[in-house]
Amino acid sequence: MAPCKRRQQAVDEVESAHNPFLQCAELILPWLTPQELAAVSLTSASLRRASLPVALRRSSDASRGLEPLPVPFRNAVDSRPYAYFLYTPSSRVLSPLNDTLLRQSWGSTRTLARSTAFPGRPSREAVDVVGDVVLGCDCERCEGHDCACWGGKGGEEEEAVVTECGAGCGCGAECGNRASQGGVEVRLKIVRDKKKGWCLLADQAIDKGRFVCEYAGELLTTKEARARQKEYDELATSRGFSSALLVVREHLPSGKACLRINIDATKVGNVGRFINHSCDGGNLSTVLVRSTGALLPRLCFFASKDIQQGEELTFSYGEIRLRSNGLQCCCGASTCLGILPSEHT
Ligand SMILES: C[S@@+](CC[C@H](N)C(=O)[O-])C[C@H]1O[C@@H](n2cnc3c(N)ncnc32)[C@H](O)[C@@H]1O
pTM of whole model > 0.90? Predict the structure, then answer.
């Protein structure tokens, strides 16, 4: 560290040790939004110095320590150090009443525990179990089709959904039939692009078929999804707002019914919210995965081809373009249609 930086750090430490106000600031600043943090940092030189490391820690890990590996932001095109949203490793139903009050500490020296990401809310494991009905296999080691959870059994919905072992199974976290349950285990980074905004990139080579991440966010009713889409469309036209509301429609083999899941990662989401569209289908495939005993399947991304380090991760947002004046697509594929997919929510 340079001598003047070291001197400043020593001054800050002495100042902080004698100033209960600054000690409180260290606890409070990570709970602030970027706008609030900027406003607070303008009030005094000490608070400006206390705010800086919070912003630095935020840009070093979008996942707030809630994933096995940090996912840093990199921006060489403008001055935004990071994107602000609340992090959830897997999708959740949030009460609209608490939604506006929801905050999450981000940028503190202490990391969040997975189960405290949303204080008072059940952890991923608890959410996955339906009431106290414990479903699952009783294998010690799940191997291929000997395991009742592997490959799906039963109703026609299971043909559209891949099944994995779940919370009620006899096997543990090391089971080979839980590929999508360990969180983000490949190195990723979020890089700013002039045209597309933030983009998710591989920061290591990823083999075809490997699990990359889930698309996690708020699970909405269709009514709520439609209302939010309307709001986001208005914001997009007036202020270049970027939304992340995904509607998954999985047609069941009989053709008689459709499984529909609305996931909004705009305000509460995970790294999946940074994956952009590509008209050529990109390098990720989307798979609905149900852990045995879970109420709803999760939308998961797997590498659809071998991916090189530094490659942008993309998938197709859909085939339909309802709006001829929709958002401009900058995917760069030779098959690019020029506008992003859009359909009725
Ligand atoms: C799920 S977000 C993806 C992350 C987003 N780029 C960001 O900065 O947060 C979807 C939004 O990203 C932008 N986007 C995604 N794919 C794009 C593409 N191929 N060309 C231009 N913009 C794209 C659009 O604004 C879209 O509404």
Answer: no
